[in-house]
Amino acid sequence: GWLTIQVALNHPNINAATYDLPPVEELAKKRIAAFNLSGRIKTGSVDILNDDLPSAEIFVMGNILHGFNEETKQQVIQKVFDALPDNGVFIAIENIIDAERKQNAFGMMMSLNMLIENGDAFDYTPTDFEEWTKAAGFKRVEIIPLTGPTSAAVAYK
Questions:
Q1: How buried is residue 35: exposed, middle or buried, by Cβ count under 10 Å (0-12/13-18/19+)?
Q2: CA torsion through residues 127, 128, 130, 135, sign
Q3: Would you say 29 and 20 are in contact if contact means Cβ atoms under 8 Å apart?
Q4: What is the mean pLDDT of residues 52-60?
Q5: Cβ-count burial of 87 within 10 angstroms (0-12 exposed, 13-18 middle, 19+ buried)?
Q6: Are 153 and 143 in contact (CB under 8 A)?
Q7: Model pLDDT, residue 109
Q8: Quick check: 149 and 95 in contact, CB under 8 A?
Q9: Dmax over Cα atoms in the chain, in whole Å?
Q10: In the prediction, which pLDDT does 91 show?
Q11: 137: phi > 0 → left, psi -120 to 50 → alpha, else beta; which?
Q12: Which comes out higher in pLDDT, residue 113 or 37?
């Protein structure tokens, strides 16, 4: 819920929802309440691999896709596409690896960590993200560098 809290604090006209696995949802509720945002941020639990996703204009996932293998990444992206309305947006905040694999050492180390922890998961390049999202039906993609090794990979429906 931390990203949702930051968005709500900086944009007082936005109402949002944050979804996590059930044990995390309770933590998010407490943090949201501590910032007096319970009236603007709703919480819920969802298993993105097994549950239907709620509809939303914008989906943001922080360090989620990198924990999956390529097939699962593509399935999750397709579920997001299907849940978005026309002109919806999907944002994946991750440690995107540059195509030449020379600049984002942290992203490459995180990719190695995902491989060790999950056996077949990995961080990815902008080209990977564009291929997966376009295969799902997204029209346009952009990569927005954020602070440190993190970027926002944005796909527009």
A1: middle
A2: positive
A3: no
A4: 93
A5: exposed
A6: yes
A7: 77
A8: yes
A9: 45
A10: 97
A11: left
A12: 37
